[in-house]
């Protein structure tokens, strides 16, 4: 069956680069989640928009599912191919197509890495401000498909804010040219925004026009030791009131433990249950003085007990490593990941309820808290206790996730802030989205992808549960 399907594909698209090599199937059949065994039919690397269109038409006619593949750094299983799907990788479509200095836009192919986009923007004296630790591997198509967030959302917003135009191939192979980088466009539904965050279920992004902006002034980074959970938001409010903040992140002593074992340097000797890292504009003496004043005010109020301000770019990078290295340092433990959010104003009460829930339900588990607390977004990674079988660990975490959803509901939050729903959070979608929402999403999916080619089984199933 597989052989005849592939023979038919080769016959239809003789120039398409394809592989069924075990190494490729293993590599391209998964993202950073490790729960599923990759079982793709094959990997295809189209080289042009027309090849993508032809491939999609063939898949729709042949009943073959497609899993779009970017850098596969996702954490929700959105790029997993474990059921005989054809993985469509954009590794061969990674060029910068155009820079427009008047519009201040960069038009790129989907397979370009975030890092390469940032570098290209800098070559023109501008920045593409969306940023996160996976920048060197993740691809812009995947960033857009998941509406990626990261460490500078507090200042610049999510990926959505930076997409001026998109070209997308729908499930019928049609090519949509969405918004054409217009600043103002009141001509009906903005389908561009429907595509952003659709997790590869509505279309394949084949070109993106990204907005760029001016670089910020020179910045500094501070890390504070925070003695109590209640003080985190006091520190945040003080920083935000006195400084121009471009990042405000937190992590716990457990996160510090793992990341320093993984090569990061302790910021200072004293221990603390919580730490925050903030980046702020420090181009003038007044801004630098303001940072010192913030530190002193927080010390006087007992909201922080220690701190350090970067004195060089190298030191700023070393401090960032404390936060950015956490995911990598936890990866060997194959953690169960939570990526939850509430409104910023709800953070203090939410933190309390979460602390209570986790202490009660996970008394013997290493729960590592960190994340974008300035956006109301927490990553709570639960580490597998030594020797606990996979199935038992997952079922235990799923039991607690159901309880967590109740806490989220109480605080009006979301089960996924920035990682997406994919496969991992699919069972909980209906706790944060109404039945009417999901029915509408299902309908939209059916219109854009009538044959159900794109990422079946991800986000939600195409037919409602009986
Ligand atoms: C991060 O912000 O570092 C990742 O999104 C979080 C994670 O690995 O859970
Ligand atoms: Zn994150």
Automatic annotation (TrEMBL):
Q: Which InterPro entries match?
A: FAD-bd_oxidored_4_C, FAD-bd_PCMH, FAD-bd_PCMH-like_sf, FAD-bd_PCMH_sub1, FAD-bd_PCMH_sub2, FAD-linked_Oxase-like_C, FAD-oxidored/transferase_4, Oxid_FAD_bind_N
What Pfam families does UniProt report for this protein, alphabetically?
FAD-oxidase_C, FAD_binding_4
Residue ranges of every copy of the FAD-binding PCMH-type domain listed in the record: 36-215
Q: Which cofactor does it need?
A: FAD
Keywords for this protein: FAD, Flavoprotein, Oxidoreductase
Coiled-coil-forming residues are none
Family label: Belongs to the FAD-binding oxidoreductase/transferase type 4 family.
- Descriptive protein name: FAD-binding oxidoreductase
Protein source organism: Tahibacter amnicola
């Amino acid at each position: 069956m597989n052989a005849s399907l592939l023979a038919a594909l080769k016959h239809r698209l003789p120039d398409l680069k394809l592989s069924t090599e075990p190494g490729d199937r293993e590599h391209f059949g998964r993202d950073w989640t490790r729960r599923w065994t990759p079982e793709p039919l094959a990997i295809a690397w189209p080289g042009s928009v027309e090849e993508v269109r032809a491939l999609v038409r063939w898949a729709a006619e042949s009943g073959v599912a497609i899993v779009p593949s970017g850098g596969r750094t996702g954490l929700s299983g959105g790029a997993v191919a474990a059921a005989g799907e054809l993985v469509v990788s954009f590794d061969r479509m990674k060029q910068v197509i155009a820079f427009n200095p008047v519009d201040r836009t960069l038009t790129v192919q989907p397979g370009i890495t975030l890092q390469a986009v940032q570098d290209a923007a800098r070559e023109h004296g501008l920045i593409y401000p969306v940023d996160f630790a996976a920048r060197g591997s993740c691809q812009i198509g995947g960033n857009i498909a998941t509406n990626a967030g990261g460490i500078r959302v507090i200042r610049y917003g999510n990926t959505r804010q930076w997409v001026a135009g998109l070209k997308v191939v729908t499930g019928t192979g049609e090519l949509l040219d969405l918004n054409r980088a217009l600043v103002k466009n009141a001509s009906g539904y903005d389908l561009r925004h429907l595509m952003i965050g659709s997790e590869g279920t509505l279309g394949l992004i084949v070109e993106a026009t990204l907005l760029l902006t001016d670089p910020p002034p020179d910045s500094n980074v501070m890390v504070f030791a925070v003695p109590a959970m209640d003080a985190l938001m006091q520190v945040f409010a003080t920083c935000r009131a006195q400084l121009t903040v471009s990042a405000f992140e937190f992590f716990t002593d457990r996160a510090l433990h793992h990341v320093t074992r993984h090569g990061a340097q302790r910021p200072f000797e004293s221990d603390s249950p919580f730490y925050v890292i903030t980046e702020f504009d420090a181009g003038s003496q007044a801004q630098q003085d303001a940072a010192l004043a913030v530190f002193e005010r927080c010390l006087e109020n007992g909201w922080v007990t220690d701190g350090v301000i970067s004195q060089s770019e190298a030191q700023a990078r070393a401090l960032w490593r404390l936060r950015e290295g956490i995911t990598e340092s936890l990866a060997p433990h194959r953690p169960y990941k939570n990526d939850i959010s509430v409104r910023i104003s709800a953070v203090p009460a939410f933190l309390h309820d979460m602390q209570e829930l986790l202490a009660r339900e996970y008394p013997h588990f290493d729960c590592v808290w960190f994340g974008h607390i300035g956006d109301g977004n927490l990553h709570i990674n639960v580490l597998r206790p030594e020797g606990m079988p996979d199935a038992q660990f997952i079922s235990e975490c799923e039991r607690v996730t159901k309880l967590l959803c109740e806490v989220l509901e109480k605080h009006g939050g979301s089960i996924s802030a920035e990682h997406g729903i994919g496969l991992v959070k699919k069972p909980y979608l209906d706790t944060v989205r109404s039945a009417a929402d999901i029915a509408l999403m299902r309908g939209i999916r059916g219109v854009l992808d009538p044959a159900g080619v794109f990422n079946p089984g991800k986000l939600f199933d195409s037919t409602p549960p009986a």
